[in-house]
Amino acid sequence: MWWEKKGHLKVNDENHLSIADHDACALAGEYGTPVYVYNKQRIIDNFSAIRNAFRKHTDNFRIHYAMKANSNPEILRILHKQGAYIDAVSPYEAKLAIDSGFPAERIMFTGTSVSNTDLKMLVNDDIFINIDSMSQIKRLRKFAGKGLNVSLRWNPGMGAGHHGHTITAGKHIKFGIPESKLDLAVDEVISAGFNLVGLHQHIGSGWLAEDVPVFLDTVDKTIAAAVKIQDKIGHDLEFIDFGGGPGIPYSADDKEFPLDIYAKGICEKIASSTLKDAQIAIEPGRYIVGDAGVLLLEINTVEEKNVPIIGVDAGFNTLARPSFYGSYHEMIIGNHVLSKNTKEYMIAGNLCESGDVFNENRETLRKLPVPREGDILVILNAGAYGYSMASTYNSRPKPRELLVDEGKVKIIRDVEW
Ligand SMILES: Cc1ncc(COP(=O)(O)O)c(C=O)c1O
Questions:
Q1: Tens digits of residue pLDDT in 221-245
Q2: Ligand 1, atom nearest to 384 Cα
Q3: Residues 352, 406, 407, 417: which is the catalytic one?
Q4: How many angstroms does the Cα of residue 243 sit away from the middle of ligand 1?
Q5: CA 352–ligand 1 middle distance (angstroms)
Q6: Nearest to 68 by CA among 49, 83, 88, 40
Q7: 20 to 30 Å CA-CA from 192: which of 163, 233, 276, 339?
Q8: Quick one: fold of 40-289?
Q9: What is the 299 CA–ligand 1 centroid distance (Å)?
Q10: What SS3 string covers 134-169?
Q11: The model's pTM
Q12: What is the fold, at CATH topology level, of the domain defined by 9-39+291-413?
């Protein structure tokens, strides 16, 4: 199967899915469903793959894990041990990172529509602030003394992402300082007495090989903007942050993200610019945790309504991506993985909403083997923007999370209301 990966996902001798050598159906039986299961080694391997791709070109880089993708404290601790930094998008994420072992100096906050309460919390906790708006610079003056190190997030005018909701640069986008205002923003930072040490872009989330050329164009634009800023402020910027966004294959048609082309492109462009001593920062989230997690659900209903229905024991309260973005997630029957896909179904969640299906939409049915009630439905690539977007809608609890760690299975978060 296209999603099988050594040491991670495979089909075992009983025709069951196994994750890090643990039978997914046995885990569902022991810990109940719905349940997220993550493989620690896969998280480490994904992080290492990014690090190694950059190390071929430079040592002057840092990887901020975008914790919005999955902020389970145990996962944060794993990545802290790997030497990650943190990209936090709320002061509460920053606090959670600190509680999970990250020193404040390894955390960068990049927010939007940031309130005064947020700013006060960040300043009190000594969190580095990457500024997103002119308003934020003006209001930050009230809470922070002169000499505060800050960076600016700008909008390089082009974006990419797996869905319109996740494109974060270009026209009609709320994030960052537009090109036409960047000069003014730098003036405002200077007049506030802050010390401008970096420039940041994040063009969107979940883009793949075909978007790398657009991304590299924005890298050029950001480098050119940073050079202009350096000339204006009269000192070198300490870092340039190129944001997150590298995607993962969610279906057999998606190609692996070309990490080498991406890392080489950034590193060579920086090396050939006058910013060559600036540290490169990136902020991947999905790439690190996305394929490291699966969601196990129990099939409770198999029935012909006006379409064939497979009913499961979770909904978009547990995994929002299909309903929210129309995202494709590979689904398999965990206890007969290799059976032939013979029939098309609507995979129906248990919330009172017609849009609560795990198909990309209600009309696009999914071909699967004919299941029995009691079978386990596995949703793959659920490690990123899965639990972290979960809610208690319909007053249903959030699911348990498990980590397979060196052969042992740990509950890393219990069922929560
Ligand atoms: C500022 C910022 N950095 C990084 C990311 C991480 O994106 P991804 O998980 O696609 O790598 C996001 C998510 O959209 C973001 O908003």
A1: 999 999 999 999 999 999 999 999 9
A2: 9
A3: 352
A4: 7
A5: 31
A6: 88
A7: 276
A8: TIM Barrel (3.20.20)
A9: 33
A10: HHHHHHHHHHCCCCCEEEEEEECCCCCCCCHHHECC
A11: 0.97
A12: Lyase, Ornithine Decarboxylase; Chain A, domain 1 (2.40.37)
